[in-house]
Amino acid sequence: MAPVPGTSDDGPPDATRAGLRRLLASFPGTTVPPWVRQALLDGVGGVVLFAENTPDLITTRRLCDELHAIAPDVLIMVDEEGGDVSRLEAVTGSSIPGNAALGVLDDVATTGRVGRALGALLHAVGIDIDLAPCLDVASQPRNPVIGTRSFGADAQLVARHGDAFVRGMAEGGVAACAKHYPGHGATEVDSHAGLPVLDVGLAELEARDGLPFRTAVAAGLEAVMTAHVVVPELGPDPASLSAWSSQRLRTDGFDGLIITDALGMRAVGDDLGRAAVAAVAAGADLLCLDAPHERDAELAFRQALDALTAAFADGTLDLAATAEADRRVAVAAAAARRRRKQPRVDVDTALTALAEAGRDAARRALRTTGSPVLMPPVALVDLRGRQNLAAGRTTSAFQSALDDRLRRLGEPPARRLDPAADDLDRAGAVLVLTREPYPEAAEGRALAALLERCPSAVVVHTGLPAVAPHVPTRVDCHGVGRANAEAVAELLLPVPAEPSR
Q1: Residues near 217 by Cβ (< 8 Å), separated by ≥ 6?
Q2: Where are the transmembrane segments (predicted)?
Q3: Does domain 366-492 have CATH number 1.20.58?
Q4: What pLDDT digit, counting tens, does each position of 129-158 carry?
Q5: Which of 33, 120, 378, 441 has a beta carbon 3.0–4.6 Å from 414's, enabling a disulfide?
């Protein structure tokens, strides 16, 4: 086997191959760099694409076709949850409203339709496994990273919609990877920034957080992503680096892929090589490393591979024990090849179907207080302070949706104003965006001050219903995807019907 550039020469070739098979590579840009091409030829487990790889659907399809031409067995993955988290539509915002809106709507047929349409689009561009849906139960409203990525706060609701979404995606032609096992919804720390602790008894863990995953496994789930979350009753290390997570999944009858969350996140420290070895020892089949916009992708890959090669060579990791992981990856690759042989819908046709499904769901999921209508001119004030780090690149979906509606009405675009602007109370109709307006937090204080000046302002709440502000005129849209924003704009700025002739 030709050596991968930058890898260790200490161990035999088998040790390097064993390490390669456990890794998911990522890279910047829209062309395959030489080091990734070599890794593909040498048998790397898979590739994860990010927004910088997928600026548009045609480029994404070309890139996926190139990757599969180099290595037909390679598994191509992406974080395409819809709503707040989109990679394929990062430039414009997602065509679907996200899990929270689907949970509020609570129509499993609609959730299945959305999952099926998303699966068809991903299949059309060449994705094999979608790192979605989130099956976290949003039992902690102040969770900084899950929020509207969850179907809701009730385990039964999350389970039935997770089931519908997983089945729908499979019908569309793509495998699902449910996350973040054993559940990230009850934490108050974002694992991108620190180590969350899920301080809950095992009975509650099983009944609440475990139910959606068990239900998805019964629905034919092919992959699970483990979280960087500590459960004290099960040990001091996060689930992604602990054998108890894989043991519990296997005991529950899951024989699919166990994939770690990104090992470059701060929850697992700065030593990527150490984390990679610990994850494989814990029973992970495939390891996400880090996003290419977070660190040098080639350097991260080399660090992880060097550490795994050394661990397999010196016996820290058992080469023979990787046979089962290799089998599971091979089964997933064979399933992906079969799906790839199925006819692919035209990309534009798939996107149209996804947009139709998303538009219907987003409109029906809106919840209102008062009579929210805007009379132009319109001023937009965005009070949302904390970014969801999982979302990556964010869009101005609400500004774009408002401006599009205003153009149709022959009105000027919405003015973007600071909440402390001197002329705010003379700005016309004021629309305010909120996400976490807790009364004691900066966002909540800013909202209270703004409403004192502009009591008629319309508040559009993009976060969880449980933290929606108590204001006279409000729209809850449950997410920040393009579908959410367009549904809000249509509601607030109705275009008059043309008179009949």
Answers
A1: 224, 252, 253, 254, 256
A2: none
A3: no
A4: 999 999 999 998 888 889 999 999 999 999
A5: 378
